[in-house]
Known about the structure:
Helix content is 33%, strand content 42%.
Amino acid sequence: MTLTKMLVLGIGLIGLIALGLYGFGKKSVYAEATIPASPQSVWAVLTELERYSEWNPAFSSAVGDLVIGGQMKYQFVQDENTSYEVPATVLQVEPSRLLIQQGGMTGVITYRHEYRLEPVTEGTLLRISESYRGIYVPFWNTAPVERAYQRVAEALRDRVVELGLQ
């Protein structure tokens, strides 16, 4: 076998492995909280980006435009030892109901992040979910991120209550 054929076969094999990992590289995280206030009140706090540092334990800052196609930058604090900037593109905005954003490195790791607000008897059910895809995902531990999002859900509930919003 010639060197050229070996190189072509090697590149093809690497491509197949990467494609397989991309196809199987899927994970997600989820958090929720019931907030004793209307979806409008919860939305008002969630979308007041300049005040994130006052209450949000996972996003110490958020800047950008929460409009479809808007570009966002978050400073994500996963835990006491891990913090990094996360850029996102806003995909969907339905005030007082839904906010969807996405970002990442195509093929390596991408994410789709959703905040869903649902009116319930007790107020609003907040659901935070994030799904991941890419060749890095099978090797990535999502547990710390899920814990961070649960802290966000609880902190958002506490902030809405603290502000006396209904």
